Amino acid sequence: MSPPSFRRRPGLSASGPGGAGGLTLLLRLLALPLAAGTDCPCSEPALCRPIRHRPDFEVFVFDVGKKTWKFYDWSQITTVAVFGKYDSDLMCYAHSKGARVVLKGDVSLKDITDPTFRTSWIAQKVDLAKAQYMDGINIDIEQEVNCSSPEYDALTALVKETTDSFHHEIEGSQVTFDVAWSPKCIDGRCYNYTGIADACDFLFVMSYDEQSQIWSECIAAANAPYNQTLTGYNDYIKMGINSKKLVMGVPWYGYDYTCLNLSEDHVCTIAKVPFRGAPCSDAAGRQVPYKMIMKQINSSISGSQWDKYQQAPYYNYKDPDGHFHQVWYDNPRSISLKAAYMQNYGLRGIGMWNANCLDYSGDAAARQQTEEMWAALKPKL
Ligand SMILES: *[C@@H]1O[C@H](CO)[C@@H](O)[C@H](O)[C@H]1NC(C)=O
Ligand SMILES: *[C@@H]1O[C@H](CO)[C@@H](O)[C@H](O)[C@H]1NC(C)=O
Ligand SMILES: *[C@@H]1O[C@H](CO)[C@@H](O)[C@H](O)[C@H]1NC(C)=O
Ligand SMILES: *[C@@H]1O[C@H](CO)[C@@H](O)[C@H](O)[C@H]1NC(C)=O
Ligand SMILES: *[C@@H]1O[C@H](CO)[C@@H](O)[C@H](O)[C@H]1NC(C)=O
């Protein structure tokens, strides 16, 4: 497990856009002479039209593939960012529910300082979105950028040019950009946050992986602690970013840490795995989806515990080799607390990495668990 690819997120196990390569080429060859609608894969040609409705409240969902999207709570979803393989059934279905479907945008930062490269990258993405009847793009860079580097301004320019181009070419389209939980150069990502926020429709704030750089004691801690999460939003707002430009991202996964030592008061010491200058990081742990966590919790040695400082649940278990583990995660209780803040501060909406993490098998316990997670996103009236 190498930290850089490990941290390609919003992405735990993101398969990336590469999976659609062959299809992409085919569609590009086919796309040129096609007027929208002539090869529409949906039952109704109207379902291939871009979504134009602008919701007051966003529920922004990342999908990494598989067919679980059929079981999502479509009464809430406004946008699906497709990080798995393109699936025309998903596009048709989302459009039938009035939800946008957007591409993943990822690019190597050393290339984008060349304006010609940017232009051709953007043209390629616009063509792909048109060929697949999609409604925009979610730009997910997550790479290190230094303040006075050429990439710093080039990144802002890329976002601006992408937005202009999409808005011009695809009516009603949406361009968004993924940022870390705080604007304070997390993981070396020193971007022009205000410039980028102005240049796109909104930022998706990845309020998770908040232990990616642990500067204090190397101990297991929450993926998205309440106070730390809120501090991030306060910092974005303080720098002048309108709260309506921010969508709160919550994790539907947790971290499983192997403890070097687990004390009686549940302090789990972890191995030192450095990340971008910090002595230890969550790369010492392993990401686990909520459905796995819920399957394991009853066989844990502690049962679910609540940390009142971080306002997050965790549990301890012993593996077959006798090693102790501590698992930190988010559940409806911890997510509701953050969602309440999202509502009070008038943020644009909420979303998660990623929607596939729940148990959609449909048995009674799984159904209840899954409904509760979706319900936790809803603003309370
Ligand atoms: C940013 O600056 C640091 C320290 O000067 C350097 O080590 C790093 O390679 C730079 N990163 C990039 C992406 O230029
Ligand atoms: C950020 O980008 C905006 C728009 O391009 C620009 O006006 C501003 O000066 C930039 N800020 C910094 C600190 O570079
Ligand atoms: C390790 O855990 C044991 C058992 O809880 C505890 O007594 C001990 O103080 C811990 N050691 C360290 C170095 O934290
Ligand atoms: C775990 O225990 C709870 C409460 O006893 C129960 O409701 C739930 O179904 C159990 N989950 C599993 C996966 O066995
Ligand atoms: C969270 O931060 C606030 C101040 O911003 C502080 O008053 C409060 O005690 C903190 N809560 C916890 C649980 O640490």
From TrEMBL:
GO terms for molecular function: chitin binding; chitinase activity. Residues 1-37 form the signal peptide. GO terms for cellular component: extracellular space; lysosome. Pfam families: Glyco_hydro_18. Residues 1-381 form the GH18 domain. Keywords: Glycoprotein, Glycosidase, Hydrolase, Lysosome, Signal. InterPro entries: Chitinase_II/V-like_cat, Chitinase_insertion_sf, DIAC_cat, GH, GH18_Domain-Containing, Glyco_hydro18_cat, Glyco_hydro_18_chit_AS. GO terms for biological process: chitin catabolic process; oligosaccharide catabolic process. It comes from the Eukaryota. It is found in: Lysosome. Involved in the degradation of asparagine-linked glycoproteins. Hydrolyze of N-acetyl-beta-D-glucosamine (1-4)N-acetylglucosamine chitobiose core from the reducing end of the bond, it requires prior cleavage by glycosylasparaginase. Belongs to the glycosyl hydrolase 18 family. This is Di-N-acetylchitobiase. The lineage of its organism: Eukaryota, Metazoa, Chordata, Craniata, Vertebrata. The gene is CTBS.
